[in-house]
Design brief:
The chain is 58% helix and 7% strand. By secondary structure, it is mainly α. The longest helix is centred in the middle third of the chain and has 37 residues, at 143-179.
Length: 478
């Protein structure tokens, strides 16, 4: 005989239901759990924290404006503070795929805070006649304006963590650029031999690409500082005190340290999710750069006998269950898969951004979830990639130089002396005969041995060949 579960009775506009007595969530959360048993994935912790700090600020604002009395408002604040400490992390069971606009999760937050506030006041959970999730916790608010506002706060907070990881990763590549600044090697365009450069040039360029991507993330993060709070239902500001918007924003900025500002147009702030879509786009742009860099590292480290083998990637685990001694570029492979997922998440965000109709984009929850998921993946893996891959990359100097000396593209340096066509013929002959271009140029009488040594001095070339181009890292250092 099963043990009877203790319950309490709660009522909403659809009727009465029995809710487990021990939980802080209530009847609307119960309905959402029953209706949306989809993925088993719950809202990210960053969104929970953002919503709790928003509700705390709203309680302060409503008390200051005389909309909620000090006893009830103070209890809501205390409940929110406990939530921010993580005490109720298991009380948010609503699936990320839920009712449009995020009403289910919003009410989940309201119910948890209301029931804990009631408990703090010595009352029974579910005593909504005294302290209501709607009338007190949600005073002057709507899902329409709180969900996008909490989403912006959560994304901004996580973006700061990503930017710190990106700055560190870019510095790691830049450090490698300095370390490899004297490693001459063949350039490659179209995957074919091209003019020489240094391995340091390539790694410094990776650092520059990451800094540019970080700049785009930072710029689009700033767009999210404009928030919808105060717009309530479809931007009208209905049921909110005239000073609620400015008051709640002041408290929000006090609690978060952010520079949040009111939406320039409340109606546009609820209709459009362009700012979130643009931020997701910045993550996509970053992901594409990460994919490119990861694939370059895999290619440059390919081999060890049949590939380029110009760099050595750290061995972090055996590479095969059957081929003894095989080591694979697993950290770069994992980065690829993380970045692929970010690109896929952005596709979902883009579809949701254009799917809003008339006065509200009800697809905001799936946008928030995918953006926060992308941020979480990048925040988690980029430091690991830096530590276990980039920091331990070595240069195979001998291999790089040996390939460079056989590079037929070196004939390009003779073009000013003998013309493009004759230089091309020299390159073709050097490749056909397996002879180094400098030696063949001397054999043909185009250069003396001294002239060849000077023209094809790779160390001098690395120092001066690109000195006239101000975008190179050499010029910036000077």
């Amino acid at each position: 005989m099963s043990e009877r579960v203790s319950t309490r009775q709660e009522r909403d506009s659809l009727g009465t239901r029995e809710v487990p007595a021990e939980v802080y969530w209530g009847i609307q959360t119960l309905r959402a759990v029953e209706n949306f048993s989809v993925s088993g994935v719950r809202e990210p912790a960053a969104l929970v924290r953002a919503y709790l700090v928003l509700k705390k600020a709203a309680a302060y604002a409503n008390m200051a404006l005389g909309e909620v009395d000090g006893e009830r408002g103070g209890a809501i604040v205390r409940a929110a503070d406990e939530g921010l400490e993580g005490r109720f992390d298991d009380q948010f069971p609503v699936d990320v795929f839920q009712a449009g606009a995020g009403t289910s999760f919003h009410m989940n937050v309201n119910e948890v805070l209301a029931n804990r506030a009631l408990e703090l006041l010595g009352r029974e959970k579910g005593d909504y006649a005294y302290l209501s999730p709607n009338d007190h916790v949600n005073r002057g608010q709507s899902t329409n304006d709180t969900f996008p506002t909490a989403s912006h706060i959560a994304i901004i907070t996580e973006a700061d963590r990503l930017l710190a990881a990106l700055d560190s990763l870019a510095l790691a590549f830049s450090t490698k650029g300095e370390e490899f600044s004297d490693v001459q090697k063949s350039g490659r365009t179209h995957l074919m031999d091209a003019l020489p450069l240094t391995l340091g040039d390539e790694f410094a360029a990776y650092a520059a690409a990451l800094r540019r991507a970080a700049w785009r993330v930072r710029e689009r993060r700033e767009d999210l500082m404009e928030v919808a709070i105060g717009g309530t239902a479809n931007g009208t500001g209905a049921n909110a005190h005239p000073q609620f918007r400015e008051t709640v924003l002041a408290d929000l900025n006090r609690f978060t340290g952010l520079g949040l500002v009111p939406a320039g147009d409340s109606f546009e702030a609820l209709q459009s999710r362009a700012q979130m879509a643009a931020f997701s786009g910045a993550l996509r742009e970053l992901a594409l750069e990460l994919i490119r860099i990861a694939n370059d590292l895999r290619l440059l480290g390919s081999g060890p006998t049949s590939g380029l083998a110009e760099i050595t990637l750290p061995a972090v685990q055996p590479g095969s269950s059957i081929m003894a001694g095989k080591v694979n570029p697993v950290m770069a492979e994992c980065l690829d898969m993380v970045a692929f997922q970010v690109v896929g998440n952005d596709t979902a965000v883009a579809l949701a951004a254009q799917a809003g109709q008339v006065d509200l984009n009800v697809m905001t929850p799936v946008m928030t979830f995918n953006i926060l998921t992308s941020l979480s993946l990048l925040i988690s893996f980029l430091p690991l990639f830096e530590k276990k891959c980039v920091a331990g990359i070595g240069a195979n100097r001998g291999q790089a130089r040996a390939s460079l000396m056989k590079n037929p593209a070196l004939a390009t340096l003779l073009s000013p002396r003998i013309g493009y066509l004759r230089a091309a013929e020299l390159a073709e002959e050097a490749m056909r005969r397996g002879v180094a271009v400098p030696a063949l140029a001397v054999e043909k009488g185009y250069l003396t041995e001294k002239e060849a040594a000077e023209l094809f001095d790779m160390e001098r070339m690395a120092r001066s060949l690109y000195a006239g181009y101000p975008w190179t890292h050499r010029e910036k250092k000077e």
